[in-house]
Amino acid sequence: MNTIKTLCFVIAALSSYAALVYRLFQVRRGWRDSAYRTLLVTLLLQCLTFTMGAVAMGSERFLGVGNLAILVMHLSAVAFCVSAQIILLRWAADAEESGRKARYWLITGITLNALLTALFLIADGPAGLAEDFNTGSGQPLVLTYLLVFMVSQAVPCVTILRQCGPYARMASKTSLRQALRLLSVAAVILFLYCLARVVNVLTAACGLDIGAWTLAASVFSALGIVTLSLALTISSWGPSATRLLEWARGYRSYRALYPLWRDLYESSPDIVLEPPGAAVSDLNYRLHRRVIEIRDGWRELRPYIDRTTNGDGGAGPRGSEESRQAFAEAAQIKQALHAKRTGTIPEDNADTGDFGDRDTDNFTAEVVWLTKVASAYRRLGKAR
């Protein structure tokens, strides 16, 4: 179990330092922004928390004082939670409101840290065992210390969760909405960590052994800190990641449309505006051209499309109505390509009308629909 706890701790620490380093690269352009400076302080406190945790795991003494690393870890964790709450205020509230509430949180954080320090000294923390500050071991003062610490972690999680929803709905920037939503997810996970930790402490105080379930707190802590690190940095890398995902979706559609486009191009070479090539440097333009050329190629086939051709059986008995329609369109294209090569014009042809009467004004919906038709066409077999 110690190995898993250590692994979870390392994951949380690495994500914290990665987020800090990533944000430090933006120090030149962001230093004048108070929200950015608050964010750096938050990440520094997050890193300090896990650095002190690593020190506490390696030795019971820090700077010659027993369990001092545990105390510093807990104090920095309280300061970190307060700072995270202030960041949320900076992101979502106006300057006057955020300033007023930030002062409240600062006073609360200072008071909590003073209380934790007093309890640590009264409980003779420097002379105690490090394990006592993990489980409480039934000592009333140490148990009180741990419960106060967990409350100090749980309350900010609740307040952040309550505020993130309304703030996310009011946010005008997509990246800010994403950050607030991720922050709310992190708050939920870290609240679960607090609950799991309280269960560990109380069961140990009652002499109960819950076995491997004690690992739940470590797992929730690691997941929560990773999610929090992503939330605190997504405003910078989020837009780039969104563009990358959009490009990947576009490229996947571009490739998926190729078999249908190729056969239509072979049947009607004049539909192509430019000679076909493999480059995708201007993917958006090429995807638009591919959709237009598929449409033009289909219109060239209208005299050869037999309206009686029905390929909806390819979707299977459980296929949706849209899947059956896509297979029907693909089967008609397959039949029409063959009819054009043989010079056969069906009596009941589709010389008028449109491609399944689909709305072509929405390009995204058009790509999705044509991709389904191309997939059905590929499953029906290459038309020759």
How are the secondary structure elements laid out?
Elements: H1 2-24, H2 27-30, H3 34-58, E1 61-62, E2 65-66, H4 68-92, H5 95-122, H6 132-135, H7 140-170, H8 174-205, H9 215-256, H10 258-267, H11 283-301, H12 321-342, H13 363-380
Distance between the termini: 62 Å
Shape: elongated
Q: Give the low-pLDDT segments.
A: none
The largest sheet is:
2 strands, antiparallel
Number of DSSP E strands: 2
The SSE string, one letter per element, is HHHEEHHHHHHHHHH
Give the overall pLDDT as a whole number: 81
Approximate strand percentage: under 5%
Helix content: over 70%
Task: Give the C-alpha Rg.
Answer: 31 Å
- The helix count comes to 13
Physical arrangement of strands within the biggest beta sheet: 1-2
Structural class: mainly alpha
Task: Give an account of the 3D structure.
This protein has 384 residues and is an all-alpha fold. It is 74% helix and 1% strand. The protein has a two-stranded antiparallel ribbon. Helix 1 crosses helix 9. The mean pLDDT is 81.
